[in-house]
Amino acid sequence: MQQIPGSLTLAPTFIVNKDLNEAMAYELTKIYYENMNEFAAMDTWFDAMVKINGVQSGFLPKDIKHTMLMPYHSGAIQFLKEKRYVDSKA
Question: Is the pLDDT confidence value at 20 over 80?
């Protein structure tokens, strides 16, 4: 993918309905975090963020909660807790 000068890019984001099956939300989150380097390879900004901050840093609820417009799905939170990316009380 070629970056267009002056364009805005954002980290890949999934927006799902709160009624989405927990297992599906869990799997989407798992795929996202386990393949973040592949996502990064598609975008120069995202690639730079991953290289500077590491795969997880900067892309977790604690890092972006001040800009979040919607809560994380409970299935996503389950995965993040298992990986200890969020506090178990989240």
Answer: yes
Q: Which of 78, 48, 76, 53 is nearest to 63 (CA)?
A: 53
Domain boundaries, the chain: 22-82
Does the predicted model carry a pTM greater than 0.85? Answer: no
Contact 79, 42 (CB under 8 A): no
pLDDT tens digits, one per residue of 48-82? 776 766 655 556 666 655 556 778 899 988 998 89
* 51: exposed, middle or buried (Cβ count in 10 Å: 0-12, 13-18, 19+): exposed
Report DSSP letters for 19-32, one per residue.
TS-HHHHHHHHHHH
> What is residue 63's three-state secondary structure?
helix
